[in-house]
Each structure stands twice: as structure tokens, then as C-alpha cells.
TrEMBL record, chain A:
Interacts with SLBP; interaction with SLBP occurs when histone mRNA is being rapidly degraded during the S phase. LSm subunits form a heteromer with a donut shape. It comes from Phascolarctos cinereus (Koala). Gene3D superfamilies: 2.30.30.100. This is U6 snRNA-associated Sm-like protein LSm1. It is found in: Cytoplasm; Cytoplasm, P-body. The gene is LSM1. It comes from the Eukaryota. Residues 5-80 form the Sm domain. CDD domains: LSm1 (cd01728). GO terms for molecular function: mRNA binding. Keywords: Cytoplasm, mRNA processing, mRNA splicing, Phosphoprotein, Ribonucleoprotein, RNA-binding. GO terms for biological process: deadenylation-dependent decapping of nuclear-transcribed mRNA; histone mRNA catabolic process; mRNA processing; negative regulation of neuron differentiation; neuron differentiation; RNA splicing; stem cell population maintenance.
From TrEMBL, chain B:
The keyword Cell cycle does not apply. Residues 168-322 form the mRNA decay factor PAT1 domain. Residues 8-18 have a biased composition (Polar residues). The gene is PATL2. It is found in: Cytoplasm; Nucleus. This is Protein PAT1 homolog 2 isoform X5. Residues 1-91 are annotated as: Disordered. One of its GO terms (biological process) is P-body assembly. Keywords: Cytoplasm, Nucleus, RNA-binding. InterPro entries: Pat1-like, PAT1_dom. The keyword Nucleus applies. Coiled coil: none annotated. Belongs to the PAT1 family. It comes from Phascolarctos cinereus. One of its GO terms (cellular component) is P-body.
Length: 133, 477
């Protein structure tokens, strides 16, 4: 019974499979076992899913306790529709390799861009030098 | 948890006979699963409908369709239904037992308690009232049976704990926002502390004005809040009056003694958009004399205000409340207001009236003033009600204004917000034909018959019928 109409509560999501997006960009999939008033989560049989292009890979992680403030969003996974995806699952090694390659190309592109800007006398502030908020 | 009185969260599946709770939704039919009327053979372990009272309509539709499919297929095969809910029995289910769930809910509920839900939870209250109204309407049209939606009700408990949300440490440069378990950090107000620097004097002044406006606004909001939920008790009125007086004094004087400075303070408030909103709302609450005082201040400084308003374009907010106040003006006060427009201000080449006529707010205000004057004059059957000097001043004023309007190009005249219907007859009475024609062209009203009966009206006392006609004609709402 929804004790609090007009509000959002995670109580009804307990024991269901969820996809959780964290602030650091990680994607976790697991069964939501427990919550508290800060929306800290306990995820069971968690898997960290890495997406690169059309491929993805799952790294089994076990039990996760996530501090509530680090969650961007989470949503229930429909077990029926879960397998119905255009994405292709690959092995962990492969996906990590893909990720590394992607990072590399990104960095190189970024380097070229910064170089081009520098030649024109402009500079873009680096992400790590910006304030968090 | 002693302060939370009889809470006993029962099972997740409320039976039809369970009474309304102290906590949680107030449901006349406590079982929301009845909305979806599941079949009698529905396995009890599916608690599906109960938590879906507030789903997005699209989501609700999808789930309903799913349920329908389930229902149809359920009759044929049960394994398909099982698949929806769990691949296999989940051995780790129920790690969080009911007591713990209830505890979390209780804690969340505690955070929702408020002494003034209208203020603290404004959006939910508004939403719920809108929903109720819609349901009442639908019930009225008999479209469907009353579908009571549950409402969140938390018991009223006096919040005894109060905390200083903003702390000022002596000698530090600013303020520190403190967060405790009772509330998060509060946004720090724009309070001017510390030494007044000479170069940023103007900046500080602006801050001062803004700060004053904020203070008054908070007082006004409290007043309006009281008015909304007020019982007609005498001591409430007294309290209201005192509060009102406080705001009025603050507005008029700030912390100045000199009346000239005081007017300055008032004008500074009006130069800010929020200040205009404040005065507009305040005018509706003030007693007559004080409201009139403010209105006359505004009319005597109209050009200044108009100039200061070019950025905001917010003066029209004041029009309606001022219009209401103008209708209460006495004749002498009205004249005072109008005369302010004709006096040449020191240091400016043109008369205020030219600036006023070119501004929408100004010209609307002027028309309203004239209309009210006309009403006052025509309503009094005995012309001796007003002193002859007053009447003479009035006549002069009307003639002068008519002259000004007629000599301004139509292009530069602003479009008024409202043209009162008794103005044409007013002008016809006092002004010659030529000017009347010019006025017609500018004021965009149907040409009035300029026969002798009108012109002759000046000397004869108006008859009852004509007065009534004037009143109806000049009726302003």
C-alpha cells in the first residue's frame, strides 16, 4: 500500500531488479534489497555494465552499498524485456579493451582540439580545474 | 517514537474493512486494488495495483494492458504469469522485513509534518485541490462515479525544535549556514554586514532597497496568508491592522525622518520591479487614507517612475489596485493628484503631462482620474457640494489636459489600457468643437453629438434622469 500518495518512495521497489546510474558514470544492475531514509541502497548480485558503442560487458561485483547522494537515477528492469535489446554482449576483456580504445581516441581528439585552439590563442578550461558545482 | 501516537501499519494488503489510518492516505474505500477489479482467483502474492495510484498516465495504460493480457492468458496457462514476477522463487527476498520498511516510511513521514502545509507543501496542496475540484466537476456531470484519490495526511505535531539556520560568527566575513537533522542549509539572505565602503556606496544603497523590499514582502505574505484563512474575530482584525501599519510605516519612511527623504525611499522601492509588485498587493489591503496617500505620491512623481520603469515595464501591475483606490478619492484629493501633473518640475523642460501621455500606464491613470472626477462632479446634484474654486480648478484642468492631448501627435500618444466611457461627454462639455474633433481622432471613440443640449448643461442643474444616465455611462468596474 502506498502510504504516501503524492510522494515518491523506494519501498515498492524492494526485491526488484534495478538499473542504477551513479554520479561517476558507472551503471550498476542489481536487486534492490534494502533502503533507508537517505535513499542509500543495498544492491544484491550486482553487475557493473560497461557500454561502448553497441557492445556491452558485465562485470559481476556482488553486493553493493551505495550512498544515496551518489545516485543520479534508478529504474526497475522489466525481466521479460531485459533480453530484448539490440546491444551485443561481449566478454569482460573485450569490453575493457574497447573502453580503453575509446578513451584513447577521445584523448587524442581532445589533444588535437586543444592544440588547434592554442594556435588561435584560445584556451578551454580543463574539466578537473572546474568547480564541481 | 513516543510522539507518534497510534501508528500501526498493517499488512501490505489492506482489507476492505480496515478503517482510515492516522497516517497515510485517507481513503473512503481503503483498498485501491479495487480500482482495477482483479479477478477473484487472483493470487494474493501479487500486490500490483496497490502502489500504482500515482503513476504517469502512459505508464498506467501500459501496465493495465499488461494486466489485461495477463488476465486473458492466466486463464490458459499459469506459468506465463509466474514469469512476470520472478524467474524462480527468490531466496533472498524479504531481507528487509516489514518492520524495517515501516520504519523508513515513518521517518519519511516525520519529515513531511508541517504546521502550515499551505506554506510548506504548497504545490502538493494546490495539486490535490485541483484534483478534487476536477473530480467534483466530473461527478457533477455524472460522467463517472466519484473516484476518491488518496490524500497524504500527516498528523499535526508541533515542531518544538527550532534551530538557528544561519549563524553569524563575530569577526568573520560572512554568514555560515548550519544544517542539522531538522533542516538543510538555508539560503543566506542578502544582508549587508561589515563596513560600508565609500566606492560601493551606490551598490550598498541598492542592496538596502532590495533588503527593505524583501522584509516588507515577507510581512505582506504573512498578512495575506492570515487573510486567506482568517476567522472573523475582532482581535485578528486588530493584529492585522497593526501588521499593516508596520508595513506602511516601513514603506513610507524606511529609517528616514525627513518627509522628503521618506518620499525618496518610497520611490526607490517603486523603482524595483518587486517593489511595484509589493505596492500593488499592499494597496489592496491598506485602509483608505493610507492607500490614497500612496496613490497621490505616485501621481505626483509619475514622470520619474515612468523613466525608471523603462527596463522593467512593470508599472501596469499597479493600474488595477490604483484604479480601485482612485474611485475612493475625494474631489480635493483628486485635484491634488491632477495638479501634480501640470506643474513644471525644476530641472526639466517639459511638463509632466507630456511624459505621462506618452506612457501607457500614465495615460490610463490619467483617464481614470478624469473619469472619476467627472463622476464626482455629475453625481452631486447641488453644485455647491464642491467649492467654486475647486470646480474652477477642475474645469481648468480638464481644458488644459484636453488641449495637451489634442496637440500631441497621434503617433506619440500611448494606447491606454482602458478608456472610460464618460470621458467623451466630459470633454464635450468643457471644450470647444475643434478640440473635440482632435480628441475624437486620438481617443478613438465614436463621435458624440455636439448639440446644444450638451453645451447648455453647464448652467442647468442636471435632472435625475440625466444624472442616472451619466452614472451608468461613467460606471467603471
Amino acid at each position: 500500500m502506498n502510504y504516501m500518495p503524492g510522494t515518491a518512495s523506494l519501498i515498492e521497489d524492494i526485491d526488484k531488479k534495478h538499473l542504477v546510474l551513479l554520479r561517476d558514470g558507472r551503471t550498476l544492475i542489481g536487486y534492490l534489497r534494502s533502503i533507508d531514509q537517505f535513499a542509500n541502497l543495498v544492491l544484491h548480485q550486482t553487475v557493473e555494465r560497461i557500454h561502448v558503442g553497441k557492445k556491452y560487458g558485465d562485470i559481476p561485483r556482488g553486493i553493493f552499498v551505495v550512498r544515496g547522494e551518489n545516485v543520479v537515477l534508478l529504474g526497475e528492469i522489466d525481466l521479460e524485456k531485459e533480453s530484448d535489446t539490440p546491444l551485443q554482449q561481449v566478454s569482460i576483456e573485450e569490453i575493457l579493451e574497447e573502453q580503453r580504445v575509446e578513451q584513447q581516441t577521445k584523448q587524442e581528439a581532445e589533444k588535437l582540439k586543444v592544440q588547434a585552439l592554442k594556435e588561435r590563442g584560445l584556451s578551454v578550461p580543463r574539466v578537473d580545474t572546474l568547480d564541481e558545482y | 517514537m513516543d510522539y507518534l501516537s497510534p501508528i500501526s501499519f498493517r499488512s501490505t494488503y489492506p482489507s476492505a474493512s480496515s478503517p482510515a489510518r492516522h497516517f497515510g492516505p485517507q481513503l473512503p474505500s481503503p483498498d485501491p486494488s479495487l480500482f482495477y477489479s482483479p479477478p477473484a482467483s487472483w493470487p494474493p502474492r501479487f500486490s500490483l495495483p496497490s502502489h500504482q495510484t500515482q503513476l504517469h498516465p502512459q505508464h498506467q495504460r501500459i501496465l493495465q494492458k499488461q494486466r489485461q493480457e495477463q488476465q486473458s492468458s492466466h486463464k490458459h496457462q499459469s506459468p506465463r504469469v509466474g514469469k512476470l514476477w520472478s524467474q524462480k522463487p527468490d531466496p533472498y527476498a524479504g531481507l528487509m522485513n516489514q518492520r524495517e520498511k515501516d520504519w523508513v516510511i515513518k521517518v519519511q513521514m516525520v519529515q513531511l509534518q508541517s504546521e502550515n502545509p499551505e506554506l510548506d507543501d504548497y504545490y502538493y496542496q494546490e495539486y490535490y485541490q485541483k484534483l478534487e475540484r476536477k473530480q467534483a466537476d466530473e461527478e457533477l456531470f455524472g460522467r463517472r462515479g466519484r473516484l476518491e484519490s488518496p490524500k497524504l495526511v500527516t498528523p499535526y505535531i508541533q515542531k518544538t525544535e527550532d534551530y538557528e539556520s544561519v549563524v553569524r560568527i563575530e569577526g568573520s566575513l560572512g554568514q555560515v549556514a548550519v544544517s542539522t537533522c531538522f533542516g538543510p542549509r538555508r539560503a543566506i539572505d542578502a544582508v549587508s554586514h561589515g563596513s560600508q565602503e565609500q566606492d560601493s556606496a551606490i551598490y550598498n544603497q541598492k542592496l538596502q532597497v532590495l533588503y527593505r523590499i524583501e522584509k516588507m514582502f515577507l510581512q505582506l505574505l504573512k498578512l495575506e496568508e492570515n487573510q486567506k484563512g482568517m476567522l472573523a474575530k475582532s482581535y485578528f482584525y486588530e493584529l492585522q491592522r497593526k501588521q499593516l501599519e508596520k508595513i506602511y510605516q516601513e514603506l513610507r519612511t524606511g529609517d528616514q525622518d525627513n518627509s522628503e527623504e521618506a518620499a525618496n525611499g518610497f520611490l526607490q522601492v517603486l523603482s524595483v520591479r518587486k517593489g511595484k509588485v509589493l505596492v500593488a498587493r499592499l494597496l489592496l489591503l491598506l485602509p483608505r487614507d493610507q492607500a490614497v496617500h500612496l496613490v497621490l505620491s505616485i501621481t505626483s512623481h509619475l514622470p520619474f517612475l515612468i523613466r525608471r520603469d523603462t527596463a522593467d515595464q512593470a508599472l501596469h501591475m499597479l493600474f488595477k489596485p490604483m484604479g480601485k483606490c482612485i474611485n475612493l478619492l475625494a474631489f480635493s484629493e483628486l485635484l491634488q493628484g491632477l495638479q501634480g501633473l501640470m506643474v513644471l518640475q525644476p530641472g526639466s523642460q517639459e511638463r509632466p503631462i507630456t511624459v505621462v501621455l506618452q506612457n501607457q500606464f500614465g495615460i490610463s491613470l490619467l483617464y481614470t482620474l478624469l473619469s472619476h472626477g467627472e463622476q464626482l462632479v455629475s453625481l452631486n446634484c447641488s453644485l455647491t457640494q464642491h467649492s467654486s474654486s475647486d470646480l474652477a480648478a477642475w474645469t481648468d484642468m480638464v481644458v488644459l489636459i484636453a488641449w495637451e492631448i489634442s496637440h500631441m501627435s497621434t503617433a506619440s500618444l500611448a494606447e491606454p489600457l482602458v478608456v472610460p466611457s464618460n470621458l467623451p461627454s466630459l470633454f464635450c462639455r468643457y471644450v470647444d468643437k475643434q478640440i473635440v474633433q482632435q480628441l475624437e481622432a486620438r481617443m478613438d471613440y465614436a463621435p458624440v453629438a455636439t448639440d446644444l443640449t450638451y453645451l447648455g448643461k453647464l448652467s442647468c442643474p442636471p435632472t435625475y434622469q440625466s444624472v442616472r444616465a451619466e452614472v451608468e455611462e461613467g460606471k467603471i468596474h
